[in-house]
Structure formats: C-alpha cells, structure tokens
Amino acid sequence: MHNLTLTELSAGLGAGEFSSVEVTEHFLARIKRLDGTYNSFITITEEQALAQAAMADQQRAAGSVPALCGVPIAHKDIFCTDGVRTSCGSKMLDNFVPPYNATVVENFAAAGVVVLGKTNMDEFAMGSSNETSYYGPVKNPWQTDCVPGGSSGGSAAAVAARLTPAATATDTGGSIRQPAALCGITGLKPTYGRVSRWGMIAFASSLDQGGPMARTAEDLALMLNEMASFDSKDSTSLEREVPDYRANLNRDVSGMTIGVPEEYFGEGLNPATEQAVRDALAELEKQGAKLKAISLPHSHLSVPAYYVIAPAEASANLSRFDGSRYGYRCENPADLRDMYMRSRSEGFGDEVKRRILIGAYCLSAGYYDAYYNKAMQVRRLIKDDFVSAFKDVDMIAGPTCPNPAFEFGAKSDDPVAMYLEDIYTIATNLAGLPGMSLPCGLVEGKPVGLQLIGNYFDEGRMLNVAHRYQQASDWHSRCAPGID
Amino acid sequence: MTWETVIGLEVHTQLATKTKIFSGASTEFGAAPNTQACAIDLAMPGTLPVLNAEAVRMAVMFGVAIDADIGLISAFDRKNYFYPDLPKGYQTTQLERPIVLAGKVDIQLDDGSTKTVRIHHAHLEEDAGKSLHEDFHGMSGIDLNRAGTPLIEIVSEPDMNSPEEAVAFAKKLHALVVSIGICDGEMAQGSMRFDVNVSVRKKGEELGTRTETKNLNSFRFMERAIVQEVARQIDLIEDGGTVKQETRLYDGDTHTARSMRSKEEANDYRYFPCPDLLPVEIDQAYVDAVRASLPELPEARRTRFMDSYELSAYDASVLSDEIATAAYFETVASRCGDAKLAANWVTGELAARLNSEDVLIQHCPISAEPLAALIARIIDQTISNKMAREVFAAMWEGEGEPDAIIEARGLKQVSDSGAIAGMVDVVIANSAKQVENYRKADEAKRPKMLGYFVGQIMKASKGQANPKQVNEVLLQKLDALL
Questions:
Q1: Which end of chain A offers a freer environment for a tag, N or C, measured as fewer CB atoms within 10 Å?
Q2: From residue A26, how far is each of A22, A59, A99, A213, B208 by CA, in Å?
Q3: Domain holding B476: CATH number?
Q4: Active-site residue among A76, A139, A189, A411?
Q5: How far apart are CA B103 and CA B389, in angstroms?
Q6: pLDDT band at A420 (very low <50, low <70, confident <90, very high)
Q7: How many domains does chain B have?
Q8: Which residue out of B44, B142, B280 would a mutagenesis test of the A interface target, given it has the greatest number of A Cβ atoms within 10 Å?
Q9: So what's the pLDDT on residue B1?
Q10: Chain A from 288 to 317: CB within 8 A of any B CB
Q11: What is the ipTM of this complex?
Q12: A76 is catalytic
C-alpha cells in the first residue's frame, strides 16, 4: 500500500478499495517500524490521525468529498498545528504548542487530509543537511551514512522511505528542491506569495515559501491544489485565483522553449550529475521542446547576496524567542539581561546563532550600505536576469544541486562549502520565482535532480513538463535500496 | 548675556481606531492585563501583521489637516531592540518613507501674534506594551494590551523658543487631533505623549547640543521639564561646562529628570525594511477624498465664530480650540438664541466651575440644553443674572431643570411695572436727602448717584425686581422731580 502514490491512494479510497483508517494505520505502523533508522519525524500524531481518518471515512460514506479526503500526509515541523507541539527543529520551541493552525494546515484539514505527524528539519530551516536539528540528523534512505539535504530533510526522507505519500515543506534558499533531489523525490517551491505564510515560522520572510513534496509531479499538483490560496492574514499573499493544477498535466511539450543557463553547468558541477541532467534535457528535446542556451550573468552573486539578506531578516525574525512569553527559558535568570542571554544562548544551536550574528552585523550602523543595501541591489540584478531570460524562453532547466548527497560531517565544519550546495536554487528565491526538482538519475547509487524554474505563477506548466518527463522515465518510481 | 532656547517636539499620538495597527485585537483602554493581546500582539511564532486601513486613513487625515505633503508610497521598517514590552524584539515603524511629509501648524502667542511651527514629518508605528515593576516581588509584570496600538509620531522642526511656545504648540496639536477625530485626547491614559528636544545658545550663535527628555504625558510636566532643562543647560555652560547629548527621563512624581543614556550608549537599532508588509500605496484621489471628509478645523471654526456669532477674538479662540467645547457652545447658542450671552456663560461661569472641579466638558453635569434653558430665562427676564448664578449652582448639584429650581426657590423676578413703580415711589419718599443731592448735582455726576436708589429698591424687593425696569422707572421718576 505504501508503494502507491498519493494519486493512487486517492483513487483507491474513492473506489472503496481500502478505507482511510486502513491506509492511516498502515503508514503509522510503517513509521513506528522504520523511522528509528531515518529519524524523519519529530512528532507522530497517531491518535489524532486515526480520528481524522475515521472522520474522513464517514464523510466519504456520506457523499462526495475532496480528492485528498482521507489521504495521509505529514507536515514539516515549521507549520503551526493547533494543540500539537511545533518545534521548528529547535530546543527553543521544544515545549511550544501553538493555539492556532497555519493556513496551510487549515487548508489540508478542510480537505479532510489526515496528518501522520510533524517532520524533522534543520533548526529554524537553517541548513542544507538536516544536521542542525535539535532532534538529531535525518538519514538519507538511499544511503544512511549520507545527509538527506535540508532544511526539509525530514519531509524528503519520509516520502523517499515511503513513510508518507506526501509532505509539506518550505523553501527559503532551496530547502524543498535540494532535499527532494538528494532523496530522489519530486518537490515544488511555488511563486512567492502563492502559498500563505501565516503560521509558518519565519526564517527569512521575503524568501520563505511553503510547497509540497511527493513522489510524482501529478501528486504535487494534487497537493498544490489544496496548499495554494490567497490569505488575507498574510500581507505578502497574492490575490490570484488558484487553477486546477492537474488540468494540463498531459499537455504536449513540443514547441516549448526551455532555457539552459550556462552558469548552471560551470565549475563545481559533478560531471555525472551534469550527464544525468543533460540526458533529462535530451528527453524533453525528444518530446519536442526546444533547448536554448541562455545566460543568467549575475548567478555567481546569488549565494553572497542570499547570505546577507536571509540572515538579516532572520536576525529580527528570531528576536521574539527571548524566553519571556513561550519557548525555552533558562533556569533561574539573575535579571532580564541574563534571561535574554542565557535563554538564547542555550536555546539556539550554532548555525542559528551564526546567522543571527551575521544578520545583525550586516544591518548595523556603518555596515548597512556595504552589506544589506548592496545585497538588495544584487537581488534586483538577479531578478532582472530572469525577467529578461523569460522574454525568450518558457522555462529554465538545469541541475538542482552540484552533487549527490554527501556524508554526515563532510561539510559541517565548513559553512561556506555547505552554503554552496544551494548555488543553483537560491536565485529563484531571491527573484520570487517558482522552482521544482524531479529525479533524473543516480550518481554513485544516489539520486540527483533536474531543476525546473518557471515564470511567475507558472506552476501549472512546470508540473506539466515534469509530468511529461515522468511519463517517459522511471527515476521517480525507483525505490531506495532496502525499502520494500 | 541673553540665552535663546531652541525646542523641538516629538509627539506620540494614539490613533482612535477600534482595533490595533497590525491585528484585530481591541484598543480599548483599561481592560484587565493581557486580555486585549492576540497571538499577533504576543508575537507568537508564525503570526504575521496586516495593516489596519483605518490607521492609514487617520494618518492621512492628520497630514491634510496640517497642510502637509502626503507620502503616496510609504513603507514600514523594523527597529530592533530587546525589551519585554516589545514582544517581537522590534518595533514596526516608518523610518525612510513616512506617510506624512513636511507640514505646518500655526500657534497663537500671548502677545496676540501668530507663529508657524514647521512639522518635519509624521509616521505610523505601533505602541509598545507596559512593564509593571510593582506588585511582583522583585519581578516585573508585562501588560501587552497596549502593544500594537496605532500611533503617529509627529516630529516638529526646532521652531519653538520658550516653554510657553512649546506648550501652545502641544495644545494646538491636541485640539487638532481631537477635532478631526483621530485621537481621543485622553492625556491621563497616555493618548498623547511628548518627547522634548531642548538646546540653548547665545543669540545669533550656532545651535547648541541638545538633550531629549522622554515620555512627558501632560502639558504641565512638559512645561516644567523644559524650564528645568533650560536652567540646567545654562548653569552648566555658565559654569564652564558643556552639555552632553543624551536622553533624559522625567519623573512626574519627584519633578526631576535624570540621564537615561548618553549618545555613546545609544542603541544601534539596525533598521531595515519590514519584509512582512508591502509598501503602502495610496493615490491622490484617496488623499482628496480624505481631505473632503475633513471636519471643520479649529482655525476655521474660530473665524466662523467671530463672523457669525460676532464673538471677540479671545472668546472665539477659547470656544473653538476644543471640539467638545465648541459643540457645547453652539448647542447653547442655538437653543437660547443669544450667542453672546451663551459665550459669556460658557467661558465664564461654566469654565470656572469645570476648572475648579477639574472636570472635562465632555463629563459636565450640566449639559448644553438645560444651560440654554437657564439662559433663556435671563433673556425673557424671568430671572436676573445674579439669580441665574444661583440656579446654575443648584443645577450643578443635580437639583433638576432650571424652571423647577426657579419655581422651588421662589426666584421669579418682579417685572410688574405697577409693583416696581410702587417700590420706586416708596424709596424716593424715604430718601429726601439723597433726592435733594441728586437734584443739585451736575448732570454728568447723576448716573453715578443712581446706585444708591437701585440698591434700596433691590433690597426692598429681596433682589427680585427686574433691574433693567428698576433703572428705567427710577430715572423717569427722578427726572420728573428736577
């Protein structure tokens, strides 16, 4: 049953082949049996999941229900869940139980979706390897001595290990696409503003965007149909109709122009990864898409700009964690200053502290123009690169990451090497564009991803291209060794 | 040697919106601690701000009222600092692009002249909560009811040169924001708070180093704080010292100020644009619509009072500054039909009583209609001015409507001409010596001599004779004896 895709589970429930309670029990049992190895969940909400499943079965028996009614998924532990601990992967929020739901959580609940639990993640979504989680690293199901990527490593590993058919995730600089690539699954970061950020714990507000992870593009379409919405509670949410993302999945790709940026195939790209990506592009060409070499000349500036802007925003976003109203507070504070200093020193991990310090530094008097302002100017240039590229092409494609999954500890002492893992994904966040990753090969027995970057609100077309590719390939249906 | 004082004000004005600037929580004053703080005000993780359109409208209304340019695109920034009454660890405010740009406010000085105080800008921001340092056994309590209340911070140019001018400006602003309905003006509840920037210089010299004294919440405190600070700075310089740029805190209990932090200790607030809020874009049509909805401003009202009620400049100014007083006066005037008499009563008897009892006109125990009814009894000569004061006092004490009081106290004025003529005859007959003197006196001196006769007649009538009629009849009868 766990080998069925989200789409197949939805169909099976509709056809009465099995009940939601049966599906939910199956996945819960699987999580309990196998997640000791992967550590992809922080919290399992068994009781609640079974109650939701029973309710979904009742609703289905009573009449017509939304497509995803009774299908189980998991939420990244960055989405606030009413009455269920939401840790954001941090000791700081180990005791935090929100009294409200994120809009994304509400949307899925309204569709009758069952929630199996909350998935592991890098602390406050800061990391590319899931090694910064307070709850311990997540193992890559393809090779358990390797990282699953981050920050949505728990969601990616859980889908790859078939502990859940799909999961929610967030992407600030590649946190959906990079772990999707490293775990051999499909993930989509929508256009900034497409998915509400209400109740999604902020890392860098102008870059954060929620999105789905699943095994196939078709499954992502089903997920995004529920996840995307205009939300008056999020001022950056865009008031724009949500199309049926499944409607055009099968559309022919012939005649479409796909831009291939030369900067994404330069130094640092693993040759075997490059080959896998080129093969995938050849497949799309075979289906009638036209490949066109393009240039995104400011690509090399995206990582430095990102590592000013994201920490700057984070340094303010994380100020609320001060030990006074909720979350971790140090023992016996001597006075206010002591409470602030020790609560934050003890409650945050090293990577979070590093980024708060970088951010505060970049914003401080005398450095603001040189760092923050300069980075914002670069951000504009990067966006302009894309805007002019999209005058000539319908979509952009390239590798998601330069390399397949690396071993634990390989980059944890070298932040810059770690940051460079996101070299191909960060620019889309800076530009606010949608991006996705889909499996396109195996390198050293580990998955690598093809990245698609679409124009604003072009998620439907991206899912269409990805689906057509997946109709002609089987990388997405391959299973990690040892997963039955 | 002459010193010149230079003063600039920053005025925090709470906007009278029903809900907070970035959340739906109520802004009502006086609720139990933390009962009006929602998840957004508490800065719970994942919560986001949504700008209250009413706060924008009120800020624009202030802008058009002071004839300012309006920032058609304004934007919010984050001002970062840690304090327990600031839940997010940053205040959302406008630094680079405020909603109200340069404007001006005219103030009337004691010598009757008018002075223009330039407004540098006014920006929208959120208020912080309150820290309560008592009653918690060495710990502090935090009340976040006020957190997120919308403010406009009005920043003046350093255009004032005395404490009196600063107070006149502050009062003018107070009258203005209350008149246009964007602030309730309740100073005791912190609806308007002042930071004063003060420096001194010798006439003609460059500006001196300024200090900022924060959080003064009454005109009186502000005046005292400025007087003290000016004296402190002059003493310092005359003793050979220099003024240090610093922030000072005034203590209303002890009436002293102390240094809070020096320039060197000033926070680096690390301002940057708030990524959770889009820039606020409004168009000229919106500004025009707000301008069209602007109620009468105190200045225009003053002119109208002078023109249509023929009031003196002084009376018109006193009655027009505060909208509550103006509304009260206009009701009295229209109900009683005599604007001048209405003005006399509102600025005289009523104002004195409100002052001595420390009551705001909004809470006056005598509302405008009964006061008008009382004045009507003066006009129709039922009672004299003097009797009216007695009735007024009884009304203040809650004894009822004026007619009932007049009836109960037997205060009716005698206006029967036969009765008055009789009393005049008796007094003339009993005052042979005074009548003789009157006859012999120069014509010019005679009017002054009438007082004696009037006094006698009023005494005989127990004060109830209509004085106007007494005068007429008396004059007639005395002249007949010449």
A1: C
A2: 6, 20, 29, 20, 78
A3: 1.10.10.410
A4: A76
A5: 45
A6: confident
A7: 3
A8: B44
A9: 62
A10: 312-313, 315-316
A11: 0.96
A12: yes
